[in-house]
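User: Before I run my own analysis I want an independent prediction to cross-check against. Here's the chain; please return only the structure tokens and, at the end, one sentence I can use as a sanity check.
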Amino acid sequence: MPHFPSAGQPNSSARTAVRLSTAVHSAESRASNTHARNAASRGHNMGDVAIILKVMPESPEVDLEKMQADIKAKVAGVNDIKVEPIGFGLSALKVAVVTKDDEGAEDKIKASFEGIAGLESVEVDGLTLL
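Assistant: Structure tokens:
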């Protein structure tokens, strides 16, 4: 004899569908908060890549606003820059750069940061195709 859930009790397939729907919604909202998703929503072409770089200043005394302006002026394809607190007054910059998905693109982008005042290091923190 088939079992029919009483009112207010969804069957197991309905519970599974609700869990899957919730998981998909949660994953979509996490993805929408990334730099790469922001870059993709700004109308870039297929074959482009978003490279997320973590830029560390030499010390907490470095003027991050000036460094951001220098990065925007010197590095081609800068799409977004966010300040990320590290600790003890030190903050890093997360820089999203959109470029063509060519061999050596990461190295070319990293090299374009050379000569920016107050810069300690640049490392690739993430990369995604758009």
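Sanity check: The longest strand covers residues 90-100.
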